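sorry for the late reply, my laptop died twice this morning and i had to redo everyting from scratch. anyway the thing you sent over, i finally got around to it. pasting the sequence first so we're on the same page, its 118 residues, then the predicted structure underneath. double check i copied it right bc i was rushing
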Amino acid sequence: MIVSKPEGPLGKYPQLFRDCDPKVVLAVVGSWWDLSGRFPLPLFEIKCPQCAGPSVIYSQCYFHVRDGSPSRYRADVQCKCATCSFAFVFGVVIPKAMFMAADQMQYNRREIREILGG
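ok and here's the structure:
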């Protein structure tokens, strides 16, 4: 059985980001993530998908380029639950400027905290 999804900001489901204008994609992503700094930071409370615990650590950020997509620049944000140790990743489309500002392609949580001053 096929269940249709309601229309969202990108149109009728299933419309993929690769089929959308990159400016629209960044606008949608920017409503969920702060894309103004060195790393994408969530504008929402992250809870563990395994245990629903609120103690989640932003553990790594890995920058990469996805060829063949109009929204090429990406950051994989790895999180880890401090309660149950479940690890999960958010794939975030980022602006080219954020990608170009990265001195290295992968940052661990200590490096991120040091750069952000926390």
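Residues 22-30 form the longest helix (9 residues).
thats about all i looked at so far, will dig more tmrw
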